[in-house]
């Protein structure tokens, strides 16, 4: 049995390369920031690049990485502001990883102290790091894998 050309969907014939997705770009930026967020500048930039690669396209990559970084930055501010550091003592018991616990508590303690001293400056620097730097990375990642249809003659 041979596959006749009429059974192949025309959408695949017209666009054989899969398109990127802003949703998957936001998701990959979010997950990359969870892993690489502790590296000061390069981690945020790399997470944006991963988001841009998933979104495929300069504008889509920038938007996906910007929104993913904004979600992480606002979450970090809110968690540091409202959740006490001592309530996270269950992490080493569940994961068995004490270094993860110290990294999280140190980050939360630093952010909480910074929020108590100069709230506007801290929030603006976190939002700039979280959204703008990842957005630039998303633009770079989207430029690497553009969302174009190229046909070979």
If you had to describe this structure to a student in words, what would you say it looks like?
The chain has 153 residues and is an all-alpha fold. It has one domain. The chain is globular. The longest helix is centred in the C-terminal third of the chain and has 26 residues, at 119-144. It has helices at 10-14, 22-36, 42-55, 58-82, 91-95, 98-117, 119-144.
Poorly predicted regions = none
- The helix tally amounts to 7
Taken from the alpha-carbon principal axes, the silhouette is globular
Structural class: mainly alpha
Binned, the helix content reads over 70%
Mean pLDDT comes to 78
Structurally, the number of domains stands at 1
Instruction: Give the N-terminus to C-terminus distance in angstroms.
Output: 29 Å
Order of helices and strands: HHHHHHH
Gist of the model:
This protein has 153 residues and is mainly α. The chain has 7 helices and no strands.
Primary descriptors:
globular; 153 residues; mainly alpha; single chain; 0% strand
How does the SSE layout of this entry go?
Layout: H1 10-14, H2 22-36, H3 42-55, H4 58-82, H5 91-95, H6 98-117, H7 119-144
Helix pairs in contact: 2-3, 2-4, 3-4, 3-7, 4-6, 4-7, 6-7
């Amino acid at each position: 049995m041979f596959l006749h050309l009429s059974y192949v969907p025309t959408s695949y014939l017209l666009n054989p390369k899969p398109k990127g997705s802003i949703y998957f770009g936001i998701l990959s930026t979010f997950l990359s920031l969870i892993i690489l967020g502790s590296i000061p500048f390069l981690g945020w930039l790399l997470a944006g690049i991963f988001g841009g690669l998933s979104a495929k396209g300069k504008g889509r990559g920038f938007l996906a990485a910007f929104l993913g970084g904004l979600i992480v930055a606002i979450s970090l501010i809110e968690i540091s502001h409202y959740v006490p550091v001592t309530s996270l003592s269950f992490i080493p018991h569940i994961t068995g990883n004490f270094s993860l616990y110290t990294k999280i508590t140190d980050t939360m303690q630093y952010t909480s102290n910074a929020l108590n001293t100069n709230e506007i400056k801290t929030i603006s620097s976190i939002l700039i790091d979280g959204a703008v730097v990842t957005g630039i990375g998303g633009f770079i990642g989207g430029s690497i894998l553009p969302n174009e249809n190229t046909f070979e003659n």
